[in-house]
């Protein structure tokens, strides 16, 4: 291969200016560069032109781009763009300031807590990739960076593969074979971190990454590779047949539970490793979070303790002069150096009713708090409370809506709405005096707003656009705050960003499941609430400084949301609470509702035609898996740990796919019988965003299937043993409904217009005037059941597809609407006498958090 010609500083690749080299990877040279449009630092990986001429390497490069761009996770490097230039194709990636794990190892064995934190973060990133069907296959210390604030980032998915069905045919896996243009004996992957199945030239799946992570953790703990031998062949043989030396024989401060976890990752048989990488990430996080308990519980030799106790009875007398001297020295030091305050924050409750907090702000003088909340079954409205008093008063002269901001003149910016869930609900932006008055309506379609310090200008989120001032687009996002001096903006969108008023990014950080944003009063930090554990139910409070440093401020049980920071910079308005997803069945002739929820994160994935059985997918870890429940509540049958996707009309079969593998599907019997494999076809993966459905006679199966060659999933049909066939066009789809005779699929397009797509001959039919989500058909197949909205309550109506006649709508919601923010997933039996629906309930309280630092 022709040597790579280095790019000189100043070279331009499109809008990117090369600053200098970073290093070389298996797929090309890596450079530090500057994005001249946004002013941010990036990393560019360039595939040289002569290598790009090799079709195999070019395909691998393009595959890396597709794979990395599909992954959005705080512990996986972010891909910004793919481009081409005279120097060859290139990837534009986020620039990560920090050290690789290889560099970290050079400083010595990694402390236990840091070891567990890195392991949990890497496992969480891998779990995200595995859930998308992607295997890294080259995890090693060089491919993991740790940022200055302790965040691990997985690099280089260049050797990853998507687990397509054809790879299961057996034979030699491409990850462990010698390429024609490589040196003799070179393996694609890195020796020392290859799994036994890779080393033996067998097919490998996501559990090979678990093995590599186990080897990486072993090395981080001991600075030794578990299977390193004198030669490459001996190392390969050791990987396949030998067990590593026990971890705690090399390092006694490691918890026994950690040793067991690593041993499980390094199991020779993949079936002895973790069934889900998410479980591995959770175990590592649990070990880290309970490390102090584990170290306290280490066994102690009683006789040795007794001997030490007897031998040290004289020590207090000997040490008394030293202690006194230490006290004197400490008093002197205390006079010259302040000891950091270790007092934990306190949380003063400000609300005392069940409901949802939709906004909160301090008044300009800092002595009063305005907030909006939906208590009981009421819509969101504005309240006021004075600090030092437990009482809140509703502002009856202020219209219903979500509080966005308070100006320096005590004017309230509201998004007017009679809904209950603020979130990113669009509405009319209006300004009203706190004492009440006629609202001044400013803009339609606004979901968030914040006053500038001058009280005249306002930053808003209009659609997906962040505007400042109103009408001037700067970027995309869903939350924006103006800095105390009005010279900068903080934006939540793709992470958290600090930018100037021209839209130039000054600092940014990852922020998964982020909601909540506020400036510190000195304008040097932005406070935000986000999750670092892969879910939105445990948001913690973080800060991002102007120089890009991220730090943890506070973490408490539940999901935190920060609304505002006080003038002292140590107090903030924060809500916390828990979310719950419930299921109810309503049956004609049976009084009330029958609760069917399981563990609080239950999704309905199907209802039998007779309305007697419901298929449930439980997402909460404590009860993760697929269940069948009878709608009378009498039966609850766990089927598997798989993910449920649909229930047959008779309720006798459940369509599922393995957790973390959407490219393999099977039919599970809900009663006696054996599972059946269900081939999906070449490069097709099951998408359960909309449940799979059958025709009434059970001969036709409809499901959302995704492909890397398609921009979005499409509805496919399988009849008997025939191959899957696409029914809907290659455009973005959502909820669909297959007619009982299997002749049509109803689906709304991106504008909300409903279309009927024939499964045989014929052209699509547009249902003029309809802008709802099709959720089912009546038993006769003449009427389509549509959801006009999925709020509280859900509004459902029927339309005759032949005559266009529309029936009066029906509303569905749980009898107790306290804290209910959404109703969704509504299913009807064939005779429409049974209805099951799920709903999300939130229970939040507003607190004044004090002593934050």
What is the structure about, briefly put?
The chain has 853 residues and is α+β, with helices and mostly antiparallel strands. Helices cover 16% and strands 37% of the residues.
Helix content: 10-25%
How many DSSP E strands?
Answer: 57
Structural class: alpha+beta
How many strands, what sense, and barrel or not for the largest sheet?
A: 7 strands, antiparallel
CATH topology of the largest domain: Methylamine Dehydrogenase, Chain H
Spatial separation of the terminal alpha carbons: 56 Å
What can you see in these coordinates?
This protein is an alpha+beta fold. It has 4 domains: about 1-95, 2-Layer Sandwich (Phosphorylase Kinase, domain 1); about 100-295, Transferase(Phosphotransferase) domain 1 (Transferase(Phosphotransferase), domain 1); about 345-580, 7 Propeller (Methylamine Dehydrogenase, Chain H); about 680-815, Neuraminidase, CATH 2.120.10. The strands form 13 sheets. A 7-stranded antiparallel β-sheet has the order 17-18-19-20-21-22-23, with no helix packed on it. It is globular. The two termini are about 55 Å apart.
């Amino acid at each position: 291969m022709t040597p790579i010609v280095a790019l000189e500083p100043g070279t331009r690749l499109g809008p990117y200016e090369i600053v200098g080299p970073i290093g070389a990877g298996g797929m090309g040279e890596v450079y530090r560069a500057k994005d001249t449009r946004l002013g941010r630092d990036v990393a560019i990986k360039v595939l040289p032109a002569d290598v790009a001429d090799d079709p195999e390497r070019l395909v691998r490069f393009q595959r890396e781009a597709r794979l990395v761009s599909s992954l959005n996770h705080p512990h996986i490097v972010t891909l910004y763009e793919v481009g081409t230039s005279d120097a060859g194709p290139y990837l534009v990636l986020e620039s990560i300031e920090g050290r690789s794990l290889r560099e970290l190892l050079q400083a010595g064995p990694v402390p236990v807590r840091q070891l567990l934190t890195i392991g949990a973060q890497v496992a969480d990133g891998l779990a995200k990739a595995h859930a998308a069907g992607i295997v890294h296959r080259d995890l090693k210390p060089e491919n993991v960076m740790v940022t200055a604030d302790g965040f691990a980032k997985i690099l280089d998915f260049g050797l990853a593969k998507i687990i397509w069905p054809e790879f299961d045919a057996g034979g030699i896996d491409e990850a462990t074979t010698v390429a024609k243009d490589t040196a003799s004996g070179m393996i694609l992957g890195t020796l020392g971190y290859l799994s036994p199945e890779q080393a033996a030239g067998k097919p490998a799946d996501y559990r090979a990454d678990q093995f590599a992570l186990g080897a990486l953790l072993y090395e981080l703990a001991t600075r030794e590779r578990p299977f390193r031998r004198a030669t490459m062949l001996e190392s390969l043989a050791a990987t396949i047949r030998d067990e590593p030396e026990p971890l705690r024989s090399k390092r006694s401060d490691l918890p026994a539970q950690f040793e067991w976890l690593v041993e499980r990752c390094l199991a020779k048989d993949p079936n002895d490793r973790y069934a889900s990488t998410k479980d591995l990430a959770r175990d590592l996080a649990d070990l880290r979070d309970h490390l102090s308990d584990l170290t306290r519980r280490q066994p102690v030799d009683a006789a040795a303790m007794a001997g030490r106790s007897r031998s040290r009875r004289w020590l207090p007398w000997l040490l008394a002069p030293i202690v006194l001297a230490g006290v004197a020295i400490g008093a002197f030091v205390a006079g010259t150096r302040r000891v950091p305050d270790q007092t934990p924050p306190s949380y003063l409750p400000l609300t005392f009713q069940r409901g949802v907090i939709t906004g909160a702000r301090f008044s300009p003088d800092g002595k009063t708090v305005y907030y909006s909340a939906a208590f009981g079954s009421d819509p969101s409205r504005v309240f006021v409370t004075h600090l030092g008093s437990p009482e809140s008063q509703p502002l009856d002269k202020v219209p219903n809506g979500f509080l966005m901001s308070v100006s320096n003149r005590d004017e309230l910016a509201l998004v007017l709405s009679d809904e209950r869930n603020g979130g990113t609900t669009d509405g009319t932006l209006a300004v009203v005096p706190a004492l009440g008055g006629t609202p001044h309506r400013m803009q339609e379609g606004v979901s968030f707003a914040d006053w500038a310090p001058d009280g005249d200008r306002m930053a808003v989120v209009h659609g997906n656009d962040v505007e400042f001032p109103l009408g001037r687009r700067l970027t995309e996002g869903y939350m924006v705050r103006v800095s105390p001096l009005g010279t900068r903006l903080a934006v939540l969108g793709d992470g958290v960003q600090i930018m100037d008023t021209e839209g130039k990014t000054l600092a940014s950080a990852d922020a998964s499941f982020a909601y909540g944003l506020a400036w510190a009063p000195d304008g040097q930090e932005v406070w935000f609430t986000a999750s670092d554990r892969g879910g939105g139910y445990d948001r913690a409070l973080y800060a991002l400084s102007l120089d890009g440093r991220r730090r943890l401020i506070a973490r408490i049980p539940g999901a935190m949301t920060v609304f505002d920071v006080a003038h002292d910079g140590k107090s903030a308005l924060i809500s916390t609470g828990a979310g719950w997803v419930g299921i109810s069945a309503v049956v004609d002739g049976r009084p009330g509702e029958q609760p069917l929820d399981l563990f609080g994160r239950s999704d309905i994935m199907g209802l039998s035609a007779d309305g007697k059985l419901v298929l449930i997918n439980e997402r909460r870890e404590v009860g993760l898996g697929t269940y069948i429940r009878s709608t009378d509540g009498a039966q609850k049958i766990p089927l598997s740990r798989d993910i449920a996707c649909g229930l047959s009309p008779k309720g006798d079969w459940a369509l599922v796919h393995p957790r973390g593998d959407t490219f393999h599907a099977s039919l599970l019997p809900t009663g006696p019988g054996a599972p059946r494999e269900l081939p999906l076809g070449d490069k097709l993966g099951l998408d359960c965003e909309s449940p799979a459905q059958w025709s009434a006679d059970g001969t036709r199966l409809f499901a959302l299937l995704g492909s890397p060659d398609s921009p979005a999933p499409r509805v496919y049909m399988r009849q008997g043993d025939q191959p899957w066939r696409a029914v809907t066009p290659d455009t973005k789809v959502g909820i669909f409904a297959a007619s009982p005779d299997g002749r049509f699929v109803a689906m709304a397009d991106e504008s909300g217009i409903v279309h009927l797509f024939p499964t045989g001959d014929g052209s699509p039919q547009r249902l003029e005037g309809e802008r709802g989500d099709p959720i089912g058909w009546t038993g006769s197949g003449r009427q389509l059941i549509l959801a006009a909205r999925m709020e509280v309550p859900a509004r459902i109506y029927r339309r005759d597809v032949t005559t266009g006649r529309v029936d009066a709508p029906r509303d569905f919601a749980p009898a107790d609407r306290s804290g209910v923010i959404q109703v969704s997933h509504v299913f009807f039996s064939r005779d429409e006498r049974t209805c099951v629906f799920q709903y999300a309930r939130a229970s939040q309280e507003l607190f004044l958090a004090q002593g934050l630092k």
